[in-house]
Design goal:
Chain lengths: ~110, ~230
């Protein structure tokens, strides 16, 4: 129960903080950062989080299935942009891949 | 059909229905190992097919599946623990990794925006694509926040994961990336869970770093998005 309490406590805190900053960053991401910080600071006991946190995150893929089903009512909003969606996503993914790898590799060599 | 709408608005029924189809999709994926049969894609398509054939309204399904949807929030918060476990292991490289992921995130948001606009996509679509390299639960929050179409984001993100897993190792070889850390980091940053599943096959270091970079990329993109949108 401790883990469930902690997760909802930080989720709620994240949502409130998100509201306070005008929703610039999603509440769940802020909740994640707050929990991360609290673990580093030693305010939350990591060994008590392990079981529940692993369970929830292992089955993460299930949670966005219902959102995806929303395709059945939203395709008309982007049907005309299919080429743009495919090309932009593919090219940008390769760019992220290469740039991230190069920056990391350069920083590693530089350090040595 | 009214009777069908009532059935699918019933939470226990729809929970069992969705989880059952998801489990079957996972089993199918494990057996075939085909990237395109990703459990999320298969589950979605099967469910859409069933709802369509039985003439069920999306609203009824949405009501019945609410609890699964709701779990997205707590699951992202729980990632804070996963991140903590991983960060403890690689403190030494944290600064260089944060830098690399932030630059990668920036390049990702800017490039997808410019290319999509150039090819005539409207702003709703552009907002849906901006978080494409971020793990889905976080990407959905970002997409929703900036006026995107969450279902489109969900599909694009999953497909990007499959795409990155397939082309990633090839691109890294061709561009002369040898560092194990750089390879793992690039796989997770560009293609989140999909990239990580492939990075695990490359090696233990690549897999662990890739897993960590999923969280870093999510945070970097969530933090950079409001800034980048001021200029784009």
């Amino acid at each position: 129960m401790y883990a469930i309490f902690v997760i909802f406590l930080f989720y709620a805190a994240g949502l409130l903080l998100s509201k306070a900053i005008g929703g610039l960053i999603p509440g769940n991401v802020l909740g994640m950062l707050l929990l991360f910080g609290a673990l580093l600071a030693g305010w939350v006991k990591p060994e008590k989080m392990r079981t529940i946190a692993s369970f929830i995150t292992t089955h993460m893929a299930l949670y966005f299935v219902p959102v995806g089903v929303g395709l059945m009512v939203t395709t008309r909003y982007f049907a005309g942009a299919t080429v743009a969606i495919v090309v932009a996503s593919a090219v940008s993914t390769v760019l992220v891949l290469v740039v991230t790898a190069w920056v990391q590799q350069i920083l590693e060599k530089w350090k040595r | 059909m009214e009777a069908m709408n009532e059935l699918f608005a019933l939470q226990p029924f729809t929970l069992a229905f969705v989880i059952g189809i998801y489990l079957a999709s996972v089993a199918l994926y494990r057996r075939t190992r085909l990237g395109l049969l990703h459990p999320v894609l298969t589950s979605m398509l099967v469910i859409i097919g069933v709802l369509y054939v039985l003439d069920v309204d999306y609203e009824a399904f949405r009501q019945g599946s609410f609890l699964i949807d709701f779990m997205l929030g707590p699951s992202v918060v729980a990632l804070g623990y996963v991140l903590y476990e991983q960060v403890r292991l690689i403190r030494r490289h944290l600064v260089s990794m944060l830098t690399a992921v932030s630059v990668g995130s920036l390049v990702g948001i800017v490039s997808v925006t410019l290319i999509a606009r150039w090819l005539g996509a409207d702003e709703q679509v552009v907002s849906s694509l901006q978080p494409k390299s971020v793990t889905t639960p976080i990407a959905l929050g970002i997409s929703e926040r900036f006026g995107g179409i969450p279902p489109l984001t969900a599909v694009v993100v999953v497909v990007v994961g499959v795409f990155g897993a397939v082309v990633g190792p090839f691109v890294l070889d061709k561009t002369g990336v040898r560092s194990k850390i750089a390879r793992g980091l690039a796989m997770g940053s560009s293609a989140h869970g999909g990239g990580t599943s492939r990075a695990i096959e490359m090696g233990a270091v690549e897999g662990a770093i890739s897993g960590l970079s999923i969280g870093l990329m999510g945070v970097a993109t969530a933090l950079l998005m409001p800034l980048v949108r001021l200029f784009l």
